[in-house]
Amino acid sequence: MDFEPYIRDIKDFPKPGVTFKDITPLLKNATALQKAANALVGFIGNTKIDKVVGVDSRGFIFAPMLAEKLGAGFVTVRKSGKLPYTTISESYDLEYGKGVLEIHADAIEEGDKVLVHDDVLATGGTAEAVCKLVEKLGGEVVQCNFLIELSFLKGGDKLNGYPVKALLRY
């Protein structure tokens, strides 16, 4: 399926000069939503996945769907101060600012095979921070999945060593 017609460009959001890739048209179409989830699962092949990590906040849309289809657990990585239990954190740079991500200290077990999922790979800072969090807890990042990769921002360079898959590349 061609997913590009379901992605809407929003110019100057969240700040002037940025063109935001809006996935809500894809999400509201039942067929596109289901086929996108199936395509993302297809990227995994026969690899055993123990946990799917979804990144705050749009990564939370597909990550639980992927976890259910893969028979895996779902783990959230959130912005600082949003998780209620003991956490570990990682600072990162993103395309329009800085931030801190956190994960529950007991979310990943030693040796867990982990799929990291987010909606967009831009500069790679967020995904890199998530991979570091997973590894701090003893997990192995098997793959990083995205709906969209903005290749011109070269975010994949920060994920050197991790397989990166995306449904769409711009």
Automatic annotation (TrEMBL):
Coiled-coil region: none
Keywords from the named record: Cytoplasm, Glycosyltransferase, Purine salvage, Transferase
Pfam families (alphabetical): Pribosyltran
Boundaries of every Phosphoribosyltransferase domain copy: 30-148
Domain of life where this protein originates: Bacteria
Family matches, as PANTHER family: ADENINE PHOSPHORIBOSYLTRANSFERASE
Protein name per its UniProtKB record: Adenine phosphoribosyltransferase
Organism: Flagellimonas marinaquae
Upper classification of the organism: Bacteria, Pseudomonadati, Bacteroidota, Flavobacteriia, Flavobacteriales
